[in-house]
Amino acid sequence: MANIWRIAGRNLLRYKRRTLLTLSLIVVGVLFVSGFAAVTGSFKTLMIGQITDSFVGHMQIHRRGYLAAIDNLPLTMNLKPQAVKKVETLLEETPQIEAYSPRIKFGGMFSNFTETTNIRLNGVDPEKEARTVPLLLPRVMEGEQAIRKGEILVPELLARGMKVKVGDVAVVIATNKDGSVNGKQLKVGGILESATGPGGRDGYIHREDALEILRMEEMEISEIAVRVKEFARLQEVFGNLKSELSGERNTEGQPILEVHTWENLSPFYNIARMIDMMTLFIKLMLIAVVLISIMNVMIMAVYERIREIGTMAAIGTLPAKILSLFLCEGFLLGAIGAGIGSILSIAMIYAINLAGFTYDFGRQTGIVLSVSVDLYELAVISGIVVAVAAVASLQPAVKASRMDPIRALGYV
Amino acid sequence: MELVRAQDLTKTYGTGATAVPALKGVSFSIEKGAFVSFIGPSGSGKTTLLNLMGCLDRPTGGRLAVAGIEVGAFGSKDGARFRGRHIGFIFQSFNLIPVLTVFENVEYPLVMVQDVPAATRSGRILGLLESVGMSDQQKKFPDQLSGGQKQRVAIARALVTHPELVLADEPTANLDRDTAHTIIQLMKRIRDELGTTFVFSTHDARIIDQAEGIFRIEDGKLQPDGNRGGSHHG
């Protein structure tokens, strides 16, 4: 087999310019695809990180049916302390869980004593919330990065619309699940930068303040946000958690709880999927480029070497070996192109990072484009190129192997 | 001892109204170690006969045995295997593989056809290159050689697998007079040394003079009065 590779390599060198042109095409294709995948992948990772770390968390646990009604923030679908305790025990016993944060979510009115508007609020345990969504407090644009009792973090747009500043006093009024209305004066502790997606414009208060506003006798919880230690193993942890939680059932035998990953909780998941689809189409274009260019080269190679193929066959070379020879040539072209393309892609990715390009996303401006080399993605792209190269050379190789030696020897 | 035996061999190209008979019932035999030539005008059937003996083509009728094996019904794979073991080819245009050196061209059938281990290949190749006077050119590529040198390499390649039969189609057609003479003498010497049977198709008088057996073929038939050496049966 080593000899077939050697002859295949020499055959590629026989037409240096043509081989170089084909290789260039493949290299440019690999560069383009890997560059696109790296940039979009980086964008995707950044945005997922922003969304999960700013407010959503990696997963959320709710009472069954809560998510379908989340727009109304129904207080009647809160988790009772007993259920919360069970879930907390399970989460603490799960080693893959980094942190969790129980939240009381409710809708209310925000008044600056002259104007009143709607507000969505999260009553949280500050320490747990900060560990579960570590980018929440860094979103505080003005004021201290803390959630204290008697204070409220007001979302940026609402603060601007209501003309409130850090240190101002406002009133939050809410209706509890029994229908009674209550209010509480809170000091504006900070102005919170908006984030993309639902929940990105919520206000935050201490959960004991929420308990007081909603006149709860015991700490009921709307949702528990969960952060895993390794994001790459999210699906595995999710699967285990789902299976564990499915054991909690009501008297009718129905599961009480439901757990969702960020993918079900944020519309950005659809954008992420669109990015994946675009990457897939770019890959399909690469396949077409490699397929056509290598097939073209190999068809030319067969036509130019008909007499040579005839000689090989006449000497006694079996058709399978002639087939292997041409397959090896196509494979080599693909492998060398993919190899050079991968090396240049890594160099290009480092160059992009060195250049420090910035971009804007929604209200966030000046985000530095930080791309990373995804070796798995690079291996997939290279694998596709090599496989397609082999497939593209199959038809010419079959043609060569089935050539009638007499006709081939007589070919001028 | 017979190496090739043909009985009432026919070959027709095409069918029906477009059928062209190339061989019309040819019978002959060639002894082992013979140095024989098929002669005749262009289109008489010489090359067709060589193709049949080389298992490159199948006869339409009759029987053909080479090295005691019926080869007339061989398919392409069986034919290739048989050629690899029993037959060497020398071509008019030398047909060396341009990307391989002289050494590698001679090595090619051992590697790609016979799977001979590396340890035994080198000695055999160098011995043959020495024998054809090309041992000092072994690292050159075909485009760096003269026509005569290329044909010497082609002879070494044809012989390296130790074939019983070497078929040479117009082997001197592209060579000048002196080189052609040298090549013929070389093949004869190798025949004497190794006992390999050489069968040519030619209309080159220089080969005809050197051949120990002649089969004259015209219009697809062996001419009974034109044969010398070998055996023509009817």
What structural class should be given to the helix and strand makeup of chain A? alpha+beta
Total number of distinct structural domains of chain A: 2
Sheet of most strands of chain A: 6 strands, mixed, barrel
The stretches of 5 or more residues of chain A where confidence is low (pLDDT under 50) are: none
Measured by DSSP, the beta-strand proportion of chain A falls in 15-25%
Main interface pair? A-B, 23 and 28 residues
Overall geometry of chain B comes to: globular
Number of strand elements of chain B: 11
- The side-by-side strand order for the widest beta sheet of chain B comes to 6-7-8-3-9-10
Give the H and E element order of chain B.
EEEHEEHEHHHEHEHEEE
Per-chain topology:
The complex is a heterodimer of chains A (412) and B (234).
Chain A: H1 2-14, H2 16-56, E1 59-63, H3 81-93, E2 97-111, E3 116-124, H4 126-132, E4 140-143, E5 151-155, H5 156-162, E6 169-175, E7 181-192, E8 203-206, H6 207-213, E9 223-228, H7 234-245, E10 257-261, H8 262-265, H9 268-304, H10 306-315, H11 319-355, E11 358-361, E12 364-368, H12 375-392, H13 394-401, H14 405-409
Parallel strand pairs in A: 3-8, 5-7
Antiparallel strand pairs in A: 1-9, 1-10, 2-3, 2-6, 2-9, 4-7, 5-8, 6-7, 11-12
Chain B: E1 2-13, E2 20-31, E3 35-39, H1 46-53, E4 61-66, E5 69-70, H2 76-86, E6 87-90, H3 102-113, H4 118-131, H5 147-159, E7 165-169, H6 177-194, E8 197-202, H7 205-210, E9 213-218, E10 221-222, E11 231-232
Parallel strand pairs in B: 3-8, 3-9, 6-7, 7-8
Antiparallel strand pairs in B: 1-2, 1-4, 2-11, 4-5, 9-10
Helix pairs in contact in B: 3-4, 3-5, 4-5, 5-6
